[in-house]
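Feature request, filed as a ticket because there's no other form

It would be nice if the structure record came with a short human-readable summary line next to the tokens. Right now we just get the raw output. Example of a typical job, pasted below so the devs can see what we mean:
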Amino acid sequence: MTKDQIEQMLGEMGIPFRYHHFTQKEMQDIPLPIVVWLTPGTDNFFADGKTYKKIKKLDIELYTDDKDWELEKKLEEVLDKYGIAWEQTASEWLESEKMWESLYEMEV
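Raw output as currently delivered:
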């Protein structure tokens, strides 16, 4: 998936999103929930000494005031709609940030 395709997909959530992070000023002006997405690396497939298939790792971090089961379900439905196999690898309260994080990891 390209950056534009990922952002089009995340736009269906109807909440603010950014690549990697929001600035401190944005965090003061934008209430939760928010989504942060990033591509932490690749998991390419190699054949005959060449990169045969390029595969990006994609992390989507959903931040909310409280555990939001319905918003998680909505994100999962969007990922399913785009045919993306995903794994929710974390769902935890971030005491230092006073927010809930739900982390989804996938390859695209």
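Something like this underneath would help us a lot:
The longest helix spans residues 69-81.
Strands lie at 17-19, 34-42, 45-47, 50-53, 56-64, 86-94, 99-107.
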